[in-house]
Design a protein that fits this description.
The structure is a homodimer.
Chain A (H helix, E strand, L loop, with lengths): L14 H11 L5 H27 L4 H12 L5 E2 L1 H8 L3 H14 L2 E5 L7 E5 L1 H21 L5 H21 L19
Antiparallel strand pairs in A: 1-3, 2-3
Chain A binds a DNA duplex through helix 5.
Chain lengths: ~190, ~190
DNA sequence: GATGTACTCTTCAGCATTGAAGTTTAGCTT
DNA sequence: AAGCTAAACTTCAATGCTGAAGAGTACATC
């Protein structure tokens, strides 16, 4: 076995270690700001891991889950066009075409031409697709309840209010939200 | 032009609209929990958009930025092996090989064999790579300061403390953090 | 000191995504 | 109604990732 000396290990540092490293390498850093930002990133990464395990347990992919979510939230009769879906999910229409192909094969949605306007296509949720979404939501609800378990009602209110305040600020500064989100949502902001 | 009637638009709903849609489609939902979880997701997405614009402005990719970050945080002399980097970033060693190829070509890192243990490779930050990281950090600091601008010191303390409490809980429930993170970190948890 | 085993990195085939070009349809203008 | 423009979707080449197989090196044991 190779000796482990020489080069640092690849294990993830704790939040405290990471903040200490930032302070060491970059003096102009407010540790409190860094703590909040890093915790937000890490929390989101963990949440995504949890959601992904849930969808895997249901036999669907994350890609499927995103599409199901958009369709359900659009309301009955759960129909959207491919390019609307693409905009909603931050994908190109080309990628949407392939996703829909797969989901039709899996029986989660149907695809048909819009007879009223034959250049359009209608993607519609199947009952099986709706059921998958419901199952995923039931799992997600359990996870989210556990996540927030330690927070009192007053704390939840305060946390929600502060997060919304942050969101408003960043949305004001960044009015053009949509677009290319896929490159970005990697474990990218991990702590900067 | 096609009429816009018929099928819903692809624009992103507001947070309030989205929570209302969840309540309509899924009765067993705690709106307060949903508010916190959705706000966390959206906030993270916006943060990633901001970071991505910054790296683009500096002429590097998000992939480059992640590698630079890992190397800098490892501390002087800013050296890591490809597989340590891969573990740290949640990529396969194969992907790491290609990223390093690109970054060597860009002059951000160097690659050489470890003469003490010739099966290993040493990836080392160049001065240019370190400078890029510093520039990115300066931009990130400005953004993060703006983001938290509306929060009083007491609120920042409270927010940081609550986020860390949530993080501890999810880390306890999910001890195996690393691994396949790239599929997951898409705009996936967007609100579930 | 020869063989076996483990580990590190690279190469290769398969898949999802992007950006751009291509196809079909709708609506506008004359 | 012929032609122009715009829009929705699909097809195609290129890129980056995964998972698995392959090549090279070091350590352990016999």
């Amino acid at each position: 076995m190779g000796d482990t000396s020489g080069i640092g290990a690849g294990t993830e540092p704790t939040l405290e270690e990471q903040i200490a490293a930032y302070q060491r390498e970059f003096q102009d850093l407010d540790p409190q700001v860094e703590q909040i930002v890093s915790a937000l990133s890490r929390l989101n990464r963990r949440m995504n891991v949890a959601y992904s395990r849930q969808t895997a347990a249901l036999g669907i992919t994350n890609a499927d889950w995103e599409v199901l979510k958009a369709l359900v939230l659009s309301g009955a009769p759960y129909r959207m066009g491919p390019s609307d879906l693409a905009k909603r999910l931050g994908l190109t229409p080309a990628a949407m075409t392939h996703r829909i192909d797969r989901m039709v094969a899996e029986g989660l949605v149907t695809r048909k031409r819009d007879e009223a306007n034959r250049v359009r296509v209608i993607v519609e949720l199947t009952p099986a697709g709706r059921e998958k979404w419901l199952e995923a939501m039931r799992l997600a609800t359990v996870f989210e309840g556990n996540l927030l378990q330690d927070l009192s009602p007053a704390e939840r209110t305060a946390l929600g209010e502060m997060l919304i305040r942050l969101l408003r600020r960043v949305e004001d500064a960044q009015p053009d939200a949509g677009g290319r989100l896929n490159d970005l949502d990697e474990n990218f902001g991990q702590g900067a």
